[in-house]
Amino acid sequence: MVHFPIGLLLVALLLELMDWRRKSAALRDATAIVTWVGAGSALLAVVFGLLLADSEDASGTSFEIHKWSGIATMTLAVAATFALRSRNRSLFRSLLFVTVFGVSFAGHYGAMLTHGDDYLSSVLPSSSEPKEPAGTDEADFVLTNTGALSPEQVQNLNVEVRTILAHNCYSCHSETKTKGDLRLDSKEAIMKGGEGGPVVVPNHPDKSEIIRRITLPKGDKEAMPTKGKRLTEREVNVLKFWIEKGALWPDGQQKSIYRVAALEPRTPAVPAATAELNKPVDLFVNAYFKKNNVTWKSAVDDRLYIRRVYLDIIGLLPPPEKVDAFVADTRPDKREVLARELLNRNDDYAQHWMSFWNDALRNDYTGTGYITGGRFDITKWLYSSLQSNKPYNWFVKELISPNKESEGFIKGIKWRGTINSSQRTEMQAAQNVSQVFLGLNLKCASCHDSFVSDWKLADAYAFANIFADTLLEINHCDKPTGKIAGTKMLFPELGEISVDAPTEKRLRQLADYLVQPKDGRLYRTVVNRVWAQLMGRGIVEPVDVMDNVPWSEDLLDWLASDFVANGYDMKKLIYTIVTSKTYQLPSTSVKEAGDIMANDFKFTGMVRRRLSAEQFSDAISIAFKPMYSDSAIMYKRLPEDIRQRLPFARAAFVKNDPFLTSLGRPNRETVSTSRTSQANLLQALELTNGNKFTETLKSGSKEWKAKYQTSDSLVTALYRKALGRTPLPKEIAAAKKILGPAPSEEGIQDLVWAIALVPEFQLIY
Amino acid sequence: MTMQSKWNRREFLQHASAATLAALAAGAPVSNLLSSCKSKSNSSADTVILLWMAGGMAHTETFDPKLYTPFEKDMEGNRVLSTFKSLPTKLDGIHFSEGLQSIGNVMDKGTLIRSYVAADMGHILHSRHQYHWHTCYEPPQTVAAPHIGSWIAKELGPKNPVIPAFVDIGQRFTVGEAEELKAFHTAGFLGNEFGPFFIPDPSQGLESVRPPVGMDAKRFERRNQLYNELINNSPVGEFGSDYQRESLKRSMEQAYALLNSPESKAFDLSTEPKKSYDIYNTGKFGLGCLLARRLTEQGARFISVTTEYEPFKGWDTHENGHTRLEEMKKQIDGPVAQLIKDLDEKGLLDRTMVVLASEFSRDMMVEGRPDAKVLEQVAQPDILSDLKFYGMHRHFTDGCSMLMFGGGIKKGFVYGKTADERPCKTIENPIKIDGVHQTIYHALGIAEDTQYEVEKRPFYTTPDGKGKAVMELLS
Q: CA B471 to CA B296: how far, in whole Å?
């Protein structure tokens, strides 16, 4: 910002030139003012510039030139003001002239520093395209480096170049598809070039066809990529720089352009306890906080805490008496006691976590199947597994190497007719197992070699073959290739699958290999999912992309190791999290939905969450009146004795309907591992005039009217049940405006409606 | 999911709803308020109405009739190409099957396509072919594919902020294959926000957009005031604002605005003049057309009106094809023609595209297509011993008719051709579903390569972004 007024020096010169021709006192006054301001800001610019350079550790030729020419210009400008004071007009004129030259010179190099060295030539065409994504810092030396590169820099530059090519060019110029006979996915291929000859001339970006093509304006017939997408300025610069440096390609094992998370487990040492903190989760978070300058806030109060843990562990609102008792409880470990108590409510716990696992395992009570026998549901198995807190390794084992009751997950969906070969049931099993249990996306690679990971088509088929009774022929983008992949684990270091063994045995092997403690990935994936459920955001996001960078690798790795050490106990994991000081921090907010997923997300506490469709519905059922009748429960799909165990018709066990759909319960045809907490119009309409909610309000209001004679008692009871607190006087007053002194049915309906819709009810604070 | 589209719809919505509320407060008509934001220089349509002939509409019995062969007891089925007479239309040399004269009379305003080729999916299943038509993707898919209406809602947003961007009229989900129908009546990975606003029964449309039954305007207003008061008084307000809270509040404001807006009257068919109402009133489908017209007048973005899919009902004729089609034609002929005329007279047809289509066609003999016959699912004897066997009962994918009107579509134009002899398959200018979708997107100004990154993989409006608009259809 301080640079702008320097331009005034140019104005000063113009004014002075005018004055030269036509003497005018007014002009001279203006010249003087403008020169003073210009010189002053030049001085400021130098001071700030040096400070900035210091803090950013800037270096490089452009920087050096800018620095020294800037200082010289500043000196000249200041000298000019002295000349002006001493009324030496001709000296002033000459000094001003030289100063302006200095301004342009220093300015040019300054612009190169901030905009890149081709900032003049890169104007206009293609500049309206999407913003540059936050790239890696690895090749940031690109814009300034003039000397020789270290081997590590060569490696990083090469990785960045391959990343750019992969994202922008591979879809047409790789093994999969080779347009113009040009492949850009290996050193030899790039150097060979395509139909039109070589595309890269080492050391000569200006003579390299690839640079010409990617810098042509959008719309030009020869511009690349053709699909209308343009490379960012930075990407172009990186490629130019790489060619200028000789199109370097290190020998030996190629470094992957994608981050791949470690497979093996790791147990980081727990940082030393502090005066306030002694739980490992908190100590790891403390280390993270220190590094990121986050200060601990005090834990939330009892009312907020009890509401949180009730909703998080059993999915229900706490009854008012429990809230009172909890607040009054003076035991120092009452939060731990409460968490244990809730976790011990096996059925309530199972009934809440059913929804999460139904989404992930695409299990539901109706459909889907497209007339081939319907969904192979696993409801009975899932319920009893959760109810008995089946160790997670067994849980996974039984889904992969299934019994009759748990086979639905790997059986997938079989449509009538022919289907895309990447959607055959064996491939569905491969995709779903890798997504849900390993946080790994095999969907791209089930059609062609992936552009977003190192997974190859053959890997996907070899993995799918484990589920297949007869080996599958590899189909490339739905076209048969005549090739057959063997059977192979995605991570062969976990074990070898016997190709010739019957499917059942292969599945047993797969299950055994996957749940081994040395498969750190399996356990990181699940602890991260649970963390995301409880904290509103995973340590890694998206939760299905476990190769992404966690915000605390130590915390993630420790949680996973601890989970294994504790016998794969889901409840212990939840206990560890909900009793940490970290969980008890005040919830935090974000401005935009996208901020939660952002790469630079900074953890400062649980992210505020919205009640799920099931939690919302159950909350209304508990605080006011059951939303569903017992007959809505899909009993047929549940264990025989479930009737006695359901406190009321919990939404997790009814057929999906427009009400639940609008609040976010998915159609479970594909795996779904997270729900959006963003509200929308269709939802608001459903809540405002939808039948389901309106009917509940109506029937509930009759009961409440009969039960509460005065508005005061009704409002108090409702607030306590719904929000876990007594109403404030102004809230009672507002409610009474609509209820009158003795509550009417309509008044009750409207009050309950309003309370149910306020954020305090709908969000987990 | 990463947004690849150029403009920020959320921002627009925010401004839009604020502007709408302000306008409503001032008593201004909202419909014109924002139209300027929407007109894209490179688009020829703002609104799309899809008239869905659910269940497989035989081309030879509707818009592409062949030689009429009257019923005789014990006749040979293979002799029957059409079970109706052909009658001339407004277009020279173009005939429609008897019972579609009204539509024939408006064909100077649109394009007749006689060469839609449905996918060959190895086996006929209506819901699966419908999924394909509406999403452009063959099920099953690894990610939940969005309905075309959801894509349009996502890309363009509502035309008038108080009319939901994607309105779906006429389909219930309590019928057979309900789960399969649900699978494509969804915004998929784009998120519920862009999903359909269902009006299963157009005569009850108003109920969806007015305060709950039995609640008068005064009470509705008071209830909303209470809600606002409670929000403002709530002690959690001190936690400051965040997007969850803001999005809750904003969605409620939008709902309130819609339910209170003058435009919501458009949903009330009882205010339609009787003469016009009667023309449309051929049943649920006809009234759906009327509702679509009224919503278009108020600024709808995408509306689907269906004859409703229910296995073996409507166009899904497994027997009695001839008799049933007499009824079906009565249902659609008047309302479709009137819709076109009304839109034209009101000056709306220029920017409103109307598309009439079906998942596939039918034939008396061929199941699937001539070169790829699939398992026969209809018991159709070779000799017609009874009138009930007289009709197009098998499912035919190789030649289907479509109509398109308005929004930049050529007028009085015919595209494609099918053979006059069995198999009556496409012999000229075949057009597939990705071409249909891309033509619609093109008219709306939605870029051909529109895509979102989902699970790190690009998902395009048409598979791999390869669909090409059929430019010959556009003027």
A: 25
The minimum CA-CA distance between B419 and chain A, rounded to whole Å, is 27
Per-residue pLDDT tens for A591-624?
A: 777 788 888 899 999 999 999 999 999 999 999 9
* Angle between helix A457-464 and helix A425-438 axes, rounded to 10 deg: 100
Check B230 against A754: CB less than 8 A apart: yes
Residues A468, A485: contact at Cβ < 8 Å?
A: no
Strand B75-76 to strand B383-384: parallel, antiparallel, or no bridges (unpaired)?
antiparallel
For residue B291, which of B164, B114, B125 has the smallest C-alpha distance? Answer: B164
Write down the pLDDT at residue A62: 61
Give the separation between CA B371 and CA A7, rounded to whole angstroms.
Answer: 76
From chain B, the residues in CB contact with A685 under 8 A are: 164, 197, 208-209, 255, 258-259
Is B375 within 8 Å of chain A by CB?
A: no
Does B128 contact A416 at a Cβ distance shorter than 8 Å?
Answer: yes
- Closest B-chain CA to A737: B226
pLDDT tens digit sequence for A740-765: 888 999 999 999 999 999 999 999 98
Q: Say whether B192 and A676 touch across the interface (CB within 8 A).
A: yes
Which of B249, B251, B253, B453 is best to mutate for the A interface (most A CBs within 10 A)?
B251
Report pLDDT for A650. 96
The pLDDT value given to residue B294: 97
Give ∠ CA B198-B200-B205 in degrees, rounded to 5: 80
B305 forms beta bridges with B51, B169
Those residues with Cβ within 8 angstroms of residue B354's Cβ, 6 or more apart along the chain or in another chain: B48, B49, B51, B110, B339, B340, B343, B403, B404, B405, B406, B407
Residues of chain A above pLDDT 90, percent: 49
Which residues are CB-neighbours of A517 under 8 A, at least 6 positions away? A265, A523, A564
| Cα-based distances in Å from A403 to A380, A501, A535, B111 | 12, 18, 34, 57
* Tokens 């949180």 found at: A308
Strand order across the B47-53 sheet: B197-199, B166-169, B302-306, B47-53, B352-358, B400-405, B110-116, B413-415
pLDDT digits (tens, 9 = 90+) for B388-407: 999 999 999 999 999 999 99
* Spatial separation of the C-alpha atoms in residues A226 and A214, rounded to whole Å: 10
Q: How far apart are CA A534 and CA A309, in angstroms?
A: 9
Largest CA distance in chain A: 105
Q: Test A757 with B140 for CB contact under 8 angstroms.
A: no
Residues β-bridged to residue B353: B48
Rounded CA gap, A440 and B149, in Å? 31
Q: What number is the average pLDDT over the span B15-25?
A: 38
Chain A, 656-685: which have a CB under 8 Å from a chain B CB?
658, 661-662, 664, 666-667, 669-670, 676-685
- Mark which residues 544-603 of A lie under 8 Å from B by CB: 544-545, 586-587, 589-593, 595
Least confident window among A287-296, A703-712, B242-251: B242-251
Q: How far apart are the C-alpha atoms of A434 and A396, rounded to whole Å?
A: 12
CA distance A73 to A16: 18
Q: Which two tokens stand for residue B397?
A: 């994918």
Q: Shortest CA distance to B306 belongs to which of B317, B315, B298?
A: B315
Range B176-197 average pLDDT: 87
Query: How many Cβ atoms from other residues are within 10 Å of residue B142's Cβ?
Result: 25
Partners of B166 in the β-ladder:
B302
Judge whether B14 is closer than 8 Å to chain A, CB to CB: no
List, as own/partner pairs, every contact residues A637-640 make where C-beta atoms lie below 8 angstroms and the sequence separation is at least 24, other chains included.
A637/A365, A637/A377, A637/A379, A637/A380, A638/A379, A638/A380, A638/A383, A639/A380, A639/A383, A639/A384
Most A CBs within 10 Å, among B192, B218, B250, to test the A interface = B192
